[in-house]
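Appendix B, example 12.
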Amino acid sequence: EVQLVESGGGLVQPGESLRLSCAASGFTFSTAIMYWVRQAPGKGLEWVSRINNLFGTTAYVDSVRGRFTVSRDNAKNTLYLQMNSLETEDTAVYYCALDIKGVRRGQGTQVTVSS
């Protein structure tokens, strides 16, 4: 059974940082392309970042590029999202996922950016 368990969310002020983690199990993590998606209040799911399997090539939505960094530790079956310079617009539930639309995703972790 595929399991994705996110953690690391919380309440922070604008400009602060958070690091999200996603523990994966039930599939061969090292060969999977992994995604972070998010859902802001009242909005649909939005793709945030992607990291490829073999060489760790990354991609980001324009709104987070330069502030967020996705990484993976294949030995630990864990996906990360380092989020710096957080903005109020980053407030959302963040999910790690096995597809860009977030159909196969975890339960999510809440990130709230507010002064």
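The CA atoms of residues 93 and 110 lie 4 Å apart. The mean pLDDT is 96.
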